[in-house]
Design a protein that fits this description.
Blueprint: H1 2-7, H2 10-24, H3 33-42, H4 49-68, H5 73-81, H6 89-108, E1 120-131, E2 142-152, E3 158-166, H7 167-186
Antiparallel strand pairs: 1-2, 2-3
């Protein structure tokens, strides 16, 4: 990961660290690595989303472990320095600054060891479509609903999950949501 971190400009690396800290503090549902990767690539850096996601997971593990062990800024930096591959100087500076400014908040906001082990729902979008025809069937007129769920996995990576439903499936889906809403109103 250290080799890939060298590629990331300091301002983008700082933004990534800030988003991870905010996620660990439960202020945001996750880190949108796809959007951040696109911005980094637009700035002329050749990095792919898989590498950026690995870096985000590594930093998330680093910060949550440091919080769980209640490390001071100096203890964290010393621990980082004893690693097999050394981080670039700009990355260490950013980690020092972010941990110094916001690290204690992770330790204070519920136990860092009890982080959620399931994903978190962020957003949902849907659209209604009609398949008019295909090369094998001249007249389909088949309505369907496409649903896109935006979910943050436990590490904070934000991903979109899409699926299609027939109208009867969508009506069942809608009925189940109404049942959930009525149960929630009684709580």
């Amino acid at each position: 990961a250290a080799d890939k971190i060298r590629l990331i400009p300091q301002d983008f690396f700082a933004e990534l660290c800030e988003q991870i800290i905010q996620h660990l503090n439960h202020k945001i549902p996750g880190v949108n690595t796809a959007e951040l990767c696109q911005r980094i690539q637009t700035s002329g850096v050749d990095i792919n989303i898989g590498d950026l996601a690995k870096i985000a997971n590594t930093l998330s593990f680093l910060f949550s472990t440091a919080a769980r062990n209640n490390l001071s800024t100096e203890e964290l930096i010393t621990t980082l320095g004893s690693g097999v591959s050394t981080l670039p100087k700009h990355a260490v500076q950013v980690i020092r600054h972010v941990w110094n400014e916001q690290g204690k908040a992770i330790a204070l906001s519920e136990d860092a060891g009890n982080m959620a082990t399931v994903g978190q729902f962020v957003d949902m979008k849907w659209k209604l479509g009609v398949a008019m025809s295909s090369d094998t069937c001249r007249s389909l007129k088949y309505p369907y609903v496409t649903v896109t769920l935006t979910v943050a996995d436990p590490s904070g990576q934000i991903t979109d999950k899409s699926f299609e439903m027939t109208i009867p499936q969508f009506k069942n889906f809608f009925r189940q949501f109404k049942e959930m809403a009525s149960v929630l109103e009684t709580v």
